Amino acid sequence: MTINNRKQFIQEVLLEAGKLLIEKYPTTATYSGAKGYLAEADLLMNEFIKTKIRSEYSNEQIFSEEDDESQRPEVSDSSLTWIIDPICGTTNFVKKLPFFVISLCVLDSAGVLSSGIFDPLRDELFLADRESTSLNGTQIFVSDVETLDEAIIAVNCNQSSFKRDRLLLIDHVIDLAPPKTRRLRIMESANLELAYVACGRLDGYLNHEDKIWDMAAGSLMIQSAGGVYKILNGSFANLKSCLGIVTSNENIFRSLAGYAKDISEVS
Q1: Which residue intervals of 79-183 are DSSP H helices?
Q2: What is the per-residue pLDDT across 173-188, written as a single tens digit (0 to 9) for each?
Q3: Which one, of 128, 102, 103, 83, lies nearest residue 19 by Cα?
Q4: pLDDT 10s digits, 218-254
Q5: Strand 133-135 to strand 138-139: parallel, antiparallel, or no bridges (unpaired)?
Q6: Residue 39: how many CA atoms within 13 Å on its side-chain side?
Q7: Which one of 56, 169, 195, 251 counts the least CB within 10 Å of its CB?
Q8: What is the pTM of this model?
Q9: Closest alpha carbon to 198 in 112, 86, 116
């Protein structure tokens, strides 16, 4: 399968994975303070998607949230690299809150090449390449709000560094609460929220703790839908050190990005 066919491959895998997730996979989960919820379905989805990739692209790297640290490559080298978030929003999935998605994308040396985010509950498939972004086959674009006080902005409070996250969440609420924005939202599914920025349901998103599996797929969608994003620490060239994202349309990006903090100074 050629590079040009990878978006079609992503579509097929996500649709099949979403059907399995809803029909067959239980919400049984374990919980830890460091990880939060880890559902049995996270691991099943991870193996399903990895098997699909290996059957079609056996020589390419895979970087997944649910793999052990030792299994993840350090950098995206000359080979293509697949980024998997088997369930983005596991807490929501376990608690039966309808805000979780499956995310899959592929990177080359220039960045994200093709990406997909699938919401199986709403049967909404977001797909992107470097030219355009679509929702169920129809091209989509970021919103056209002109000022931050008109905007609906999403933030998150994930647990990867709880002490720091707690401080940043408080800062975000203080900094961005109305009337500085129209509304704040905390949905706790980064890939879904980024897809919603790409289609204009949300106007912007800010999270300092997102890992590459949280934001790679959505970053391409937003860029190809006319938006702007900035990785807050590192870059997609170094998969393990890439951390945090701020994104919106061009009109409000400078204003929103002004609230991004230097997390090295937040203890």
Answers
A1: 90-94, 162-176
A2: 889 999 999 999 999 9
A3: 102
A4: 999 999 999 999 999 999 888 888 999 999 999 999 9
A5: antiparallel
A6: 23
A7: 56
A8: 0.93
A9: 116
